[in-house]
Write a structure and sequence with these properties.
Radius of gyration: 18 Å
Strand order of the largest sheet: 1-2-3-4-5-6-7
Strand content: 5-15%
Helix content: 25-40%
Bound molecules: adenosine monophosphate, manganese (II) ion
Largest sheet: 7 strands, mixed
Number of helices: 10
């Protein structure tokens, strides 16, 4: 199998490496192609494209869009991530859409910080803001790093576990894009819509079936099977879902440059050979 890694972050969102250094890491790790898929922004694509050209690496422009999805009006809304691969970064439909999604991140960050003030942890907004390279893209990851830096938690995963996930005292609900809109923006930009790390959403079988049906009916074409967010049992589970729905399969580390995830670009196991890789659909 060709070593394609199609899900990675740079400091244009919540990764630690610059887009150029991410590309150089992928080259060192012998990737045949790399996608940069920052959260709700394409700000890193230009630099990554230029470095990939210099380094002779095939580069795929991508984005990871935050979506709020509920199975019906009576169930709680979940945050779902949809990756767009092979996007035209000049598409006004996509750019306008991404702007509506990222608007509100700054306000959410201030609300998160107020929650922490009530817990006796002051000034966390300023610290998280200072850690964000792209000031409009401040994320929970930056709060997690600030909490580690202050010694409130030993590592990033603990910061999420104790404070930053639903039901915990530093969690602020937020309204992201609608599923159909996110897929529409990606397709308008000529891209392929990929459901990111389905194993992370903790959905029961029937709800996963519904999510995948809706994703497909709106024009979604692929799901991540081998990702840094899945364990080997989940590789098999989502291979089965991909076969059931006729989805193409994607592979990506979801690399952020920190210890939250052990996988570097290009180091995950290959896709199961029974699946059709999503890169067959990328020009
Ligand atoms: P946001 O888009 O600001 O809500 O931040 C979401 C990001 O937080 C994800 O893309 C991950 O990088 C990170 N994240 C979410 N949950 C966890 C977790 N349990 N452990 C480590 N990182 C996480
Ligand atoms: Mn992230
Ligand atoms: Mn994600
Ligand atoms: Mn990601």
């Amino acid at each position: 199998m060709e070593n394609f890694d199609l899900h990675n972050h740079s400091h244009a969102s919540d990764g630690l490496l610059s887009p150029g250094n991410l590309v150089r890491l992928a080259v060192r790790n012998r990737c045949d192609a790399l996608a940069l898929t920052d959260h709700d922004t394409i700000d890193g694509i230009e630099e990554a494209t230029a470095t990939a050209q210099t380094e002779g690496l095939r580069f795929i422009a991508g984005v990871e869009i935050s979506v709020s999805w509920a199975a019906n009006e009576n169930t709680r809304t979940k945050t779902i991530h949809v990756v767009g691969l092979g996007i035209d970064t000049q598409s006004t439909t996509l750019l306008t859409g991404l702007e509506t999604v990222s608007n509100g991140r700054l306000q959410r960050a201030k609300a998160i910080s107020e929650d922490f003030s009530r817990l006796g942890i002051q000034g966390l907004f300023e610290e998280a803001y200072a850690l964000a390279q792209n000031k409009t893209m401040i994320s929970r990851t930056h709060f997690a790093r600030a909490l580690v830096q202050r010694g409130h938690v030993p590592n990033i995963n603990k910061a999420f576990e104790r404070y930053l996930t639903e039901g915990k005292p530093g969690y602020q609900p937020h309204r992201w894009a609608a599923l159909d809109d996110a897929i529409r923006w990606i397709r308008a930009a000529g891209g392929v819509a990929v459901l990111a790390h389905p194993g992370r959403y903790a959905l029961d079988h029937a709800t996963m079936d519904q999510l995948l049906s809706e994703f497909k009916s709106h024009g979604g074409e692929a799901i991540e099977v081998v990702t840094g967010s899945h364990n080997p049992r989940e590789y098999r589970e989502y291979a089965t879902w991909a076969e059931k729905f006729g989805f193409l399969a994607s592979r990506g580390a979801d690399y952020h440059g920190d210890a939250s995830n052990q996988w570097e670009p290009g180091t995950l196991p290959p896709l199961p050979t029974s699946l059709t890789p999503v890169w067959t659909a990328l020009k």
